[in-house]
Amino acid sequence: MPTPVNRAANALPGLVPGVGSLVYGAGAGTAGEWAVALAAVLACATLAVRGYRAGVRCETERLVVRGFLWTRVIPRTAVTGVSGLPAVRWTTAGGRRRWTPVWAFAVVSEETGGTRSRKRSNTARLRRWAARGQRPA
After folding, report:
1. Exposed site from 91, 110, 116, 127, fewest CB < 10 Å?
2. d(CA 72, CA 117)
3. Global pTM?
């Protein structure tokens, strides 16, 4: 899971426009403007909470990838690998190949060396977890 600093940074895409929406709502003159501001605040709050909770949880029999918009639960036996983004490659029970990005571990050029190192370490741990659960060829 990301560190508290990373969690706070992941929440910013929802917090910053949310504050702007609050300011707009405070000055809204009509019910329509107020309703739009309220909807924007709720959407931004949802994005901020999802960003804060973004990450991966490796369990014994499944992988839980919590992203900004959705949470994906993948059976361990379905995981076929982890790409460089990183993204989890997996196959559905019906044989369809899927790809689920792990945005919480994506390396960004503006981040500190320590943050980048932790993300790469977490990605390596995810790869090891995935490799241990793959079916033999």
Report:
1. 110
2. 25
3. 0.81
pLDDT tens readout for residues 24-60: 998 988 999 999 999 999 999 999 999 999 999 999 9
135 has a pLDDT exceeding 70: no
Enter the tokens of residue 121: 């370490």
Residue 42 structure tokens: 């709720």
Q: Is 29 helix (H, G, I), strand (E, B) or coil?
A: coil
Q: Give rounded-to-5 percent helix, strand, coil for the chain.
A: 55, 20, 25
Coil, helix or strand for 92?
coil
Angle (nearest 5°) at CA 33 between 28 and 34: 70
Gap between the terminal Cα atoms of the chain: 31
Residue 50 vs residues 46, 53, 69: alpha-carbon distances, Å: 6, 5, 7
Sign of CA dihedral 64, 57, 131, 105: positive
Give me the helix-helix angle, 113-133 and 4-26, nearest 10°. 110
